[in-house]
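[#protein-structures] MJ: dropping 60S ribosomal export protein NMD3 here for a structure pass
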Amino acid sequence: MLCNSVMFPPPKTWIKAQWESKELLTFCIKRLLKKNLNKVTLTNAEFVWTEPHSKRIKVKITVQAEVLNGARLEQSYFVEYTIRDNLCESCSRFQANPDQWVASVQLRQHVSHRRSFFYLEQLILKHDAASRAIRIQQVHQGIDFFFGNKSHTNSFVEFLKKIVPVEYRQDKQLVSHDVESSVYNYKFTDSVKILSSCLPKLLEMVCTKVSDNITLLDPRTLRSAFLDARQYWRSGFRSALTSRQLVKYLVFDVEEPPVCGQKYALSYVQIARESDIGNNDKMFDVQTHLGHILKPGDYALGYDIYGANVNDDEMDKYRLSVKNERFLEVILIKKCYDKERERKKGKPLAFTTKKLPMEMDESRGGGRVDQEKMENEYEEFLRDLVENPELRFNISLYKNKDYQEESETASMTDGEGAPTVPVEELLAELELSEEEEGE
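AK: finished. structure tokens for 60S ribosomal export protein NMD3:
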């Protein structure tokens, strides 16, 4: 039996064998042949029934040997095997007392949603980064990871630094001290904070990617800029507008973008707020990097810089700095697929994801998490994966066995350009039966 914390794969000599199967009998006989059956001939072997919970395997073997002048003697023996389950040292210590952790990582993001943690969870699962964690707890605005060794914590923090800009601090607490041997036992805690915003003071830039660096795009020129973690935290960015303040716009006209091989296409679009349609004739002519996917009649989500009522000094400075110029009244972020989402609401997606074995920490605020809100945010995260190929590039998606393919007539109602996840990107999840899991 392998402990869940084992990082390396089992030896190649290990086999999967069901109870009283041919494979298990072969394995048991080979164990005897190596030591005791070198001078005799094995003629028969069979299992003798034992209670499965007894942790015992009994095998009846029949052997022959030449004793005198060609005469052969046959005799039967019963051999008993004992099944022993082993755990690694850290897991054995954790089973005895769950509080015997040595180091922990407190991962936090001070925002009102958990979509960033859903994405981080998939990256952690794909790279098996938390496999040595002896316990994982979900708390308010974050996740706590507990490890049995300080080196495991260091490896996990290094992994986080490679996938997202983080700011972290290390602390330790003295647990015990042996005066005679001068041995000190500490508990170590790494407090890791991940970025909470991508649209702070840079009001003319669009955040297109977040990894160990932040990629920013100017929707007027399509030029990119990059921020590393040190630059981000040193500048002390604050959120002027968040994703909760995205406004839906209706696209009336799109200037034909030039044909190019770039990822984005610069174009002028004429848009209006959905809430203004039928109430006033306020229209906006803005530049956008989404000229390759927008067409008249589409909806798009963007930040309303023109009508934003924000008590922020940086926003006021920005408006004054471009007083004599025409500033971006609207920054479009992405195309909106609400019609397709509404049509598929309540239906299973073609893919599913795995989840970390997290428990709720009610003593520290984890119990206050609204389950209904979390499920809605997780559903929104899955829809974002469908609409954004870049977002799902670094994570593993698995085929959903509950998904049923729609007919050709039904799929046509999605409209032209409705996003889907190609079947080629989905993995078949390995499922073991109860008998196989028991081995």
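MJ: nice. Residues 89-194 form one domain.
AK: one more thing. The chain is about 20% helix and 30% strand.
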